[in-house]
Write a structure and sequence with these properties.
Blueprint lengths: L2 H4 L2 E6 L6 H14 L4 E4 L2 E2 L2 E2 L6 E2 H9 L7 E2 L3 E2 L13 H4 L1 H10 L5 E5 L14 H8 L3 E6 L5 H12 L3 E9 L4 H14 L4 E6 L7 E2 H8 L2 E4 L7 E2 L1 E5 L3 H8 L5 E6 L3 H8 L3 E7 L6 H10 L3 E3 L4 H11 L8 H14 L2 H8 L9
Parallel strand pairs: 1-8, 1-9, 2-6, 2-8, 3-7, 9-10, 10-11, 15-16, 16-17, 17-18
Antiparallel strand pairs: 4-5, 12-14, 13-18
Helix pairs in contact: 2-14, 9-13, 10-11, 11-12
Length: about 375
C-alpha cells in the first residue's frame, strides 16, 4: 500500500448498518481538530437523500458538514445514491456505474484536509452493485480501513475475522461499539487481546450509552404520523425506552418508576395510567384508541412540559413502529453529538491512530 495515501485518507466502514460510523467520524474529527489536524470528509455512496435541501444532497453529509464546519473544499456530495427510489436505474449497464472507479479516485483527491475521513457503506456487501462496496473502495484507492462493529458476545469475533479476510492488509483496526457494562471486563481482558493477537488492532471499546440509542419525541411523532396534543415546543426531549401502560394503576406506577426517560403507550381513555406515567420519568405520552385525554391530563402535561401524542393506530402497531426506531436513528441531535465526543475522548486511542496514519500534531494549534 502507498504510504503517501495512508497519511491523507482513512476509510470508515461497519459490519452492519447502525454500527456507529457517523458517530465515530464526528467524535474522531473533534479529537483530531484539537490536535491541529484539518479534517476533510466525503461519503462516496449516499443513502439518505435530503430532497428538501436547496440542492438535493445526502442528509448525513449535510449534517456532518455542518457539525464540523467544513468548507466546500473540505467535503463533497456522494458520487451516487443507492436507496429504494434509485436502485432500479442501476440494474442495467450504464456509464454512471461502469466509470465509477475512475470517478472515485478524482472524488477522493479533490477533498482538502490533512486527513480525509471517507464514510463507507453500511456493510461489506452494500454498494457492490455500483462498484462502491467497502472492499472495492479499499482496493481501488489502496486505503486503510477503520471498522466499527456492534458488540455481540457470540458473533463479534467471527464477524471481525471475516472482515479481516475480506479486507486483508487494508484493515487498520476496529472500534467495538455498544458494549454493555456487564461485558466491559470480558471485552477488555479477553476479546480485545484475542483480536490484537490475530493482527486486528482495537482502537476503542465504546460502552453502551442510553442517550445514543435514544430517539427524540419529534422522530417518534414523525414515524407514527402522530398529532401533537400539547407541548410542541418540547419535541426535542429524548426517549430511551418504550413502555406499555395496560395494567392496573398500582402495578403500573411501580413499573413506571423503574423506567428512565420513557415513552408510555396507553389508551386515550386510561386517565389513571396517564397520570401515573406523568408522575414518573416519562418524556412522552403516546395515546391510542381514538379517545381524547381528559382536560386535567393535558393541564398536568403542560405544567410538567411533557408532550402528548395521539395516533390513529392500535397499541400493537404503535409499539412495533416505535420500537424499531430505538438504536437506529441517525445521529442528528446536537445532544448526541456532544455525547459521542465525550465517549471518543474517554475511550478512543487517538495517539495510536495518529501514529498508525503518520500524523503529527500541529504545534500552532495544540
Amino acid at each position: 500500500m502507498a504510504q503517501a495515501k495512508h497519511n491523507k485518507h482513512l476509510l470508515i466502514g461497519s459490519t452492519m448498518a447502525h454500527s456507529g460510523k457517523s458517530a465515530v467520524i464526528l467524535g474522531l474529527a473533534h479529537q483530531l481538530n484539537q490536535q491541529g489536524i484539518q479534517i476533510g470528509y466525503g461519503k462516496p455512496l449516499g443513502t439518505y437523500l435530503n430532497t428538501e435541501a436547496i440542492a438535493p444532497t445526502d442528509a448525513d453529509v449535510q449534517f456532518i458538514t455542518e457539525q464540523l464546519a467544513l468548507s466546500p473544499a473540505q467535503t463533497k456530495a456522494p458520487l451516487l445514491t443507492l436507496n429504494a427510489a434509485s436502485f432500479t436505474q442501476y440494474l442495467q449497464p450504464t456509464s454512471e456505474v461502469t466509470n465509477v472507479m475512475h470517478s472515485l479516485s478524482s472524488y477522493v483527491d479533490d477533498i482538502a484536509g490533512d486527513l480525509v475521513l471517507l464514510e463507507g457503506p453500511g456493510s461489506l456487501s452494500e454498494g457492490r452493485l455500483l462498484n462502491l462496496s467497502l472492499v472495492q473502495m479499499a482496493a481501488q484507492l489502496d486505503l486503510p480501513v477503520l471498522m466499527t462493529a456492534l458488540y455481540h458476545p457470540v458473533t463479534l469475533i467471527d464477524e471481525l475475522l471475516d472482515v479481516q479476510e475480506a479486507l486483508g492488509d487494508h484493515l487498520m483496526g476496529v472500534v467495538i461499539n455498544d458494549i454493555p457494562e456487564s461485558d466491559a471486563a470480558v471485552v477488555a481482558e479477553q476479546v480485545a487481546p484475542y483480536l490484537e493477537r490475530q493482527g486486528i488492532p482495537v482502537f476503542a471499546q465504546l460502552p453502551r450509552n442510553g442517550l445514543l440509542r435514544s430517539v427524540s419525541v419529534r422522530e417518534l411523532a414523525t414515524k407514527l404520523e402522530a398529532k401533537v396534543l400539547c407541548r410542541p415546543d418540547r419535541l426535542d426531549l429524548m426517549v430511551e425506552s418504550l413502555t406499555i401502560g395496560a395494567m392496573n394503576v398500582n402495578s403500573a406506577l411501580e413499573y413506571f418508576r423503574k423506567g428512565r426517560n420513557m415513552a408510555v403507550v396507553t389508551g386515550g381513555d386510561r386517565s389513571e395510567l396517564q397520570l401515573a406515567a406523568l408522575e414518573t420519568s416519562t418524556n412522552c405520552l403516546i395515546l391510542t384508541g381514538h379517545s381524547a385525554p381528559q382536560d386535567f391530563i393535558l393541564s398536568r402535561a403542560e405544567d410538567l412540559e411533557i408532550p402528548i401524542l395521539s395516533v390513529d393506530l392500535d397499541t400493537l402497531t404503535t409499539v412495533e413502529i416505535a420500537d424499531q426506531s430505538f438504536g437506529q436513528v441517525r445521529l442528528q441531535e446536537p445532544i448526541k453529538v456532544q455525547c459521542i465526543q465525550e465517549l471518543i475522548h474517554a475511550h478512543f486511542d487517538t495517539p495510536r491512530l495518529m501514529q498508525a496514519l503518520g500524523l503529527e500534531p500541529s504545534p500552532v494549534n495544540v
